[in-house]
TrEMBL record:
First-tier enzyme category under EC: hydrolase
Organism name: Pseudobacillus wudalianchiensis
Organism taxonomic ancestry: Bacteria, Bacillati, Bacillota, Bacilli, Bacillales
Residues the record lists as binding Zn(2+): H54, C84, C87
Residue ranges of every copy of the CMP/dCMP-type deaminase domain listed in the record: 3-128
Molecular function in Gene Ontology: tRNA-specific adenosine-34 deaminase activity; zinc ion binding
Catalytic reaction equation(s): adenosine(34) in tRNA + H2O + H(+) = inosine(34) in tRNA + NH4(+)
Biological process terms in GO annotation: tRNA wobble adenosine to inosine editing
CDD domains attached to this UniProt entry: nucleoside_deaminase
Cofactor remark: Binds 1 zinc ion per subunit.
Protein name (Swiss-Prot/TrEMBL): tRNA-specific adenosine deaminase
The keyword Repeat appears for this protein: no
UniProt subunit comment: Homodimer.
Length: 169
């Protein structure tokens, strides 16, 4: 871990909070090149109803536009949740040098949890992976979000049941 990793992860957490304020799963990403933030983004799947609007992909797109190339060879990507297979593929193809993430993803993590696509030597590019940076803060944000979401769904289900019972009377 580099000394600036926590600093940039805190910026990714700020991005995640923007997603949460929109009712999105709170995942944020920041791309740093030569010590400068060149792109940042947050999850927008619910807003766009588009499966590929993950924080990492949106940040990679912005970073490529900023540098004028699809190659992000010396870039570092900070993300609050371990990248999924789709995002890991984009990271490999854009040649990001380092990937630093907060919380592990036991359901889709492809940077060490389910598999490690990013360091697989069979690909023509590998990214260095650093996991667990501000892991507790990143994980708690996600856990709290999903706990609240389940609570809201349960309340909605109860409300619908009550409404149906009233209509039948």
């Amino acid at each position: 871990m580099k000394k600036n990793d926590e600093f940039y992860m805190k910026l990714a957490i700020e991005e995640a909070k923007k997603a949460e304020s929109l009712g999105e799963v709170p995942i944020g990403a920041v791309i740093v090149l030569n010590g400068e933030v060149i792109a940042s983004a947050y999850n927008l799947r619910e807003t766009t109803q588009n499966a590929i609007t993950h924080a990492e992909l949106l940040a990679i797109e912005k970073a490529c536009q900023k540098v004028g190339s699809w190659r992000l060879e010396e870039a570092e990507l900070y993300v609050t949740l371990e990248p999924c297979p789709m995002c890991s593929g984009a990271i490999i193809l854009s040649r990001v040098e380092r990937v630093i993430y907060g919380a592990k993803d036991p359901k889709a993590g492809c940077a060490g949890t389910l598999m490690n696509l990013l360091e697989d030597s069979r690909f023509n590019h590998q990214s260095e992976v650093v996991s667990g940076v501000l892991e507790e803060e990143c994980g708690n944000m996600l856990s709290n979000f999903f706990r609240e979401l389940r609570k809201k769904k349960k309340e909605e289900k109860k409300r619908m049941k009550e409404q149906t019972a009233e209509e039948e009377e």
